[in-house]
Amino acid sequence: MSINQTSSVSTEPKKSSIVSVEPRGLIEIDKVSVLFGKGDQVTTAVQETSLVVEPGEFVCILGPSGCGKSTLLNSVAGYAYPTTGSVRVDSEVVTGPGPDRGMVFQQYSLLPWKTTFENIALGPKLTNDLEATKTTEFFLDMVGLTKYRNHYPSELSGGMQQRVGIARALATYPSVLLMDEPFGALDAQTRLVMQESLLDVWSEFGTTVLFVTHDVDESVFLADKIIVMSASPGKVVAEFDNPLPRPRSQSMATRSDYIELKQKCLDVIRSESLRAFELQNS
Ligand code: ADP
Question: Which residues pair with 35 in a beta bridge?
């Protein structure tokens, strides 16, 4: 049983206490366009896009830089407002940020004067001290950083800092985890380790994940479903179900179904990039 089937108000980390209720984490993006600026200066960051992400699903949004991936993600987070259309999470229209949606950014955004434990504790501390401590310890353990609980961010590697960021986002028991190129600042080797580590955490936690990336391999390795966005103005131009079985390992990159899916994504991205190039030069 996944934690997205738990009561939305529980801060109890022990799975034995899980109460089965409605699955959480349904995202419905309905004909959303996001425009920035006014008059001649208008930028259409997202052009009429619809997408449904089922509870517990891991969906990657893939596309070239500047195509509106972050804006679409931010419309779910409540940081960007749709100019037209709407976003609903578990049937509630998103009107701003909320604890039901945890966010992990590329920059680790940890508080440098707080320890690992204190950074993770920022979310659950708002509820109740005893439960917050138990919850923090649970997530500290889940991301393998119990030994580093008293270290400050400057004493941790980039990968460790991002694990703190993930634990902090999960510690409020969000129904949805929104990740904006979370491993973009890491070196290639650490990135692979972090992808595996994220899948371990996700398989244990089971929350819905919406993950933005421009890395095709990353999306094929992680996702149940890959959404490919066109070059600016961004809209969904392809949606691929990922046939790779779970659990996954990096050695799957040589499988024929992996290579086939990667090629399909690359073909769409290439034709979209060519189209954008032609538009810019016409
Ligand atoms: P991606 O995440 O795919 O790199 P973004 O969503 O960040 O793309 O940006 C999409 C487009 O919207 C870009 O042209 C970007 O310059 C523009 N944009 C994003 N945020 C803002 C903003 N707050 N104000 C004005 N333009 C923005």
Answer: 44
